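Pilot study result, target chain (361 residues):
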Amino acid sequence: MRQPRQVTRASSPPGRPRPALAALHDLLVGGSAAIARLRADVAQVAPSCATVLITGPTGAGKENVARALHAASGRTGRFVAINCGAIPADLAESELFGTETGAYTGATRPRAGRIEAANGGTLFLDEIAELPPALQVKLLRVLETGEVERLGGHRSIRVDVRVVAATHRDLDQMVADGRFRADLFWRLAVVCLDVPPLAARPDDIPALVAHFAAWRGAALELAEDGHAALRAHPWPGNVRELRNLVDRAVAYGVRRLDAEAVCRFLAPRRRTVDAWLTTPPDPAHPLRLPHDPPLKPAAELRPVVLKALLAEAEAAIIRQALDATGGTVARSARLLGMKRTTLIDRIRRLGLSDGPPAGNA
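Predicted structure:
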């Protein structure tokens, strides 16, 4: 069912301002042939009203492509992002479509949903494969008619929304298996953009390192051996994994990223966390593992913020669970032994559902 790569060749509608193409280089960072081609495609299709389906592995930067499409579109409305896998099933309809007074207990006034909030702008539906079947039907109707009907309402509201969807799953296979509506798939896939994994564009690593460091207000020199170490890494977490590495280096005050620093900051606390769960602690140093390096004298230790380190460890564990379950929040919650709503709250609080406002992550 996979179709050839499509690009809509459409010009800006009359009266619409010229696209802000400069934003593309801030959101889609790098000079490789793959990222240059993606930038060119985004610039070409952004001014059209065509729906776009963005595919690519987790952490490759699909949301940044969506933001680039909006920035270069000339649309004056908001960019509204929603993660279809992070909304509780019983709240998904009201979150997307809004509610009228009396739609359910406690609905004391009308409330616009995310689709209406994106009127005049772009609605980004991340992890579209997780959208429940009943809502797939309602979304298809919105795309077909340009109208939305709130939960508990009986009137149609006209909306001018450009829909961009993204997924790391194989929607073709999901359609074949009956887990995703074929009519919705074809309605979303008017334009298909594929985001390459970081391992397929290693030439972009220096530019991305500099970009993420600058976003944190720091300058990070990339040593030759550090560059070689980064290029040799397979990057299972893609650009998001590289961003995390830079964030750790900056947090620890590193100014030069050599091979030793890459080795130190590349892996999150996963190895240590796994070892804490399986290795009896040293009574004298409960947080130290047998294979960890000797402790430094107190005078040599740099001051750290415990709250920040705990948040980093928590974020790493949640990312590990999400990666292991393909981004499915319900399965990740079961794996972590917590309620789904608690995990959703943690994801939002730690900022794991969205990357930085700029940077290809």
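One observation from the pilot: The chain has two domains: 22-196, 199-349. A full batch analysis is planned for the follow-on phase.
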